Amino acid sequence: MKPSLFLGLAIFLIASTGYAQYTDVINSNRPGSSYSAYAVGTNVLQVEGGLFYDHRDHSGLNTTANQFGLNYVVRYGLFFEQLEIILDGSYAYEKVKDHSTLPEYSYNQSDFQSNTIGAKYLIYDPFKKNNTPNLYSWKANNTFQWKNLIPAIAVYAGANFNFGDNPFHPEDPTVSPKVMLATQHHLTPKWVLVTNLIYDKFTGDDPLFNYIITLTHALNDRRYTVFAEHQGYKSDLYGDGVFRVGAARLIGTDLQVDAALGTNIKDTPKRYFGSIGLSWRWDKHKDKAVDVDNISNQEKRAIKKRNRKNKKGIFEIDEN
């Protein structure tokens, strides 16, 4: 028996021939900040959330701030395997100290840092016509191939909501648009590269462009993954670069726990932050019917083996 594929990352192990959306184990975007190109699958509700801490020192304003908060994402697949609806947001409590006064002045503030509702749709899947593993070659399934440079591509459109007198975004409009292009390369079953290009709040006075590049690697245990991520921001009022690293642990088929640390490149403010979280899904997905008379023997064998899902979330493939 050859080593198994990590179902949370491998495109090959999918719910039905012709679709590369649903996987037998949860496939979360945490602990990174990027969106994958693929959806969770129809009739799947997935909740991803966590607690975060963010320490900020602003050299220009001579202030320090400590933030504690909650990040949350709710994803639901409906109508099509390629489509998911996403609620994405965060709420923070912040304690600020102003060192420019004598005595020092401190104050507290809290509110939603973000609340966005949108839809993401996979417009191109390079594995749609050839999404089964090579049952005769372990090497073909576990090494880099040039065709893996062709990414899956998804588009996203949504709206940001900023209600009331928000101390974190006092100048933002109540409602503003957000659009994104998401790409995903499965370089090998163990290495996945995700890129997001985001144009945000572009109907307001200070539109924001940002990008996210996330590289994920599955360890030999296959239940553990590690990631490194870079995110860049650019607007008329603010620009920065952020780096994150972290790890996730798969527990069963529908639960994942994670942790991450990060910092940025500027000192206005200088940031050090971390998070812990979990992802859980409610899975009522049903496979589409497959016409077994019109698929190859290799595809039939792959489907049968995929259906032998064991409780550890690991799938083994025979060499012969």
Uncertain segments are 1-20, 309-320
Query: What share of the residues does DSSP label as strand, in percent?
Result: over 45%
Which oligomeric state applies? single chain
How are strands sequenced across the largest beta sheet?
Answer: 2-3-4-5-6-7-8-9-10-11-12-13
| Gross morphology | globular
- CATH architecture assignment: Beta Barrel
Biggest sheet details: 12 strands, antiparallel, barrel
Give the helix proportion (percent range).
Answer: under 10%
- Give the CATH level 1 class: Mainly Beta
Whole-number average pLDDT? 84
Number of domains: 1
Number of strands: 14
- For the termini, the CA-CA separation is 9 Å
Rounded radius of gyration (Å): 21 Å
**CATH fold-level label:** Porin
Helix tally? 2
Q: Could you name the CATH homologous superfamily? A: monomeric porin ompg
Structural account:
A twelve-stranded antiparallel beta barrel has the order 2-3-4-5-6-7-8-9-10-11-12-13. The protein has a two-stranded antiparallel sheet with strand order 1-14. The N terminus and C terminus are likely disordered. The chain is globular and about 80 Å long. 5% of the residues lie in helices and 52% in strands. The termini are close together. It has two helices and 14 strands. The chain is mainly beta and 320 residues long. The longest helix is centred in the last third of the chain and has 10 residues. The chain has a single domain, classed as monomeric porin ompg (Porin), CATH 2.40.160.40.
